[in-house]
Every structure is written in structure tokens, then in C-alpha cells.
Design brief:
With 153 residues, the chain is mainly beta. It folds into two domains: 87 residues, Chitinase A, domain 3 (Roll), CATH 3.10.50; 48 residues, Beta Barrel (Thrombin, subunit H). The chain is built from two helices and nine strands, in the order βββαββββββα. The strands form two sheets. Strands 1, 2, 3, 4 and 9 form a five-stranded antiparallel beta sheet that branches. Strands 5-8-7-6 form a four-stranded antiparallel beta sheet, with no helix packed on it. The longest helix has 7 residues. It is elongated, with a radius of gyration of 19 Å. The protein starts with 6 loop residues before the first strand and ends with a helix. The chain binds zinc ion (ZN). Zinc ion binds next to loops.
């Protein structure tokens, strides 16, 4: 069957950035299975796979806007160092959970000085154009329970 909304799709994939670095791959693992049309994977990839069948392969470039979104300046904030009372060493690259009105989000330290710590709450792939090489391993209809839950069992 063709990939369409409400089917379960199994794919092998390799994800690289524009420099050719492999960011993620299913090589050596089971294929990724997802429920088409339910936002299980990034919108740009989901859209590109529509209509393909098992055995097809595809190379597709997904712009950041259709992947993890652009970098949002509002998610980068400088906070006073005192906010980290009890943390002995704060270094660039460390990750913390920040409490926000929308719940906890992971943030990464991107700068530190005597007074302030600058935190970035953007997804690590925000602003990054993604290049996928995909092979369709299987396409099947979803079960009623899978449709009800919005994910693959
Ligand atoms: Zn479930």
C-alpha cells in the first residue's frame, strides 16, 4: 500500500547536516516505525514520504522551518549566577531543566561569566537544515488501537 494518513510506516534512514556529518541513523538497528499523519516525525519528512511504497528510497532535504523550527532568540536568556546556588562548576555545554509556564524544558549553557549564565532552550537541531536518505521497509494499515493512541504499538 501507499503511504497515506493512518498507516504504520517502517523506514530505514540516515540523517546528515549540510556538512555531511551523520546526526542520526537507523543503520544497525530496527527500522523506525511511525504513524503517518499524527505528527510522530517532523512535518517536512512526513510530507515527503506520502505516496511512497515499500522498497522505495528517497533523498530529501528538509528546511529548518519544516523540521525543528528556526532558532528563537526568546529562548536564549541570561540569568544571574546566583540562580545556580549549590552547583559548584558551571561550564558551557552543561544541561539543566528550566521551569517555564509551559512546563520544564531542557536548556544548555552557552556562555558563562562572573555575573551571568546564558542559557539556550532551543532544540539542538533548531535552525538546522536536515538531509534524509530514507528507505521504506514496510507500510501497513494501523490497528484501531494505534489510531486511538496516535502512535505505533
Ligand atoms: Zn498506545
Amino acid at each position: 500500500m501507499k503511504i497515506q494518513d493512518n498507516c504504520v510506516v517502517s523506514i530505514h534512514y540516515t540523517l546528515t547536516n549540510d556538512e555531511g556529518d551523520v546526526i542520526d541513523t537507523s543503520e544497525g538497528r530496527d527500522p523506525l516505525r511511525y504513524l503517518q499523519g499524527h505528527g510522530n516525525i517532523i512535518p517536512g519528512l512526513e510530507q515527503a514520504l506520502l505516496g511512497l511504497v515499500a522498497g522505495d528510497s528517497l533523498k530529501v532535504t528538509v528546511e529548518a522551518e519544516d523540521a525543528y523550527g528556526p532558532v528563537q532568540d526568546s529562548l536564549i536568556q541570561a540569568v544571574p549566577r546566583e540562580a545556580f546556588d549549590g552547583v559548584d562548576t558551571i561550564e558551557v555545554g552543561m544541561q539543566f531543566q528550566a521551569q517555564t509556564a509551559q512546563g520544564p524544558i531542557p536548556v544548555t549553557v552557552i556562555a558563562v561569566d562572573e555575573e551571568t549564565v546564558t542559557l539556550d532552550g532551543n532544540h539542538e537541531l533548531a535552525g538546522v537544515r536536515l538531509n534524509f536518505a530514507v528507505q521504506i521497509a514496510d507500510v501497513r494499515a494501523a490497528s484501531p488501537e494505534e489510531l486511538d493512541h496516535g502512535h505505533v504499538h
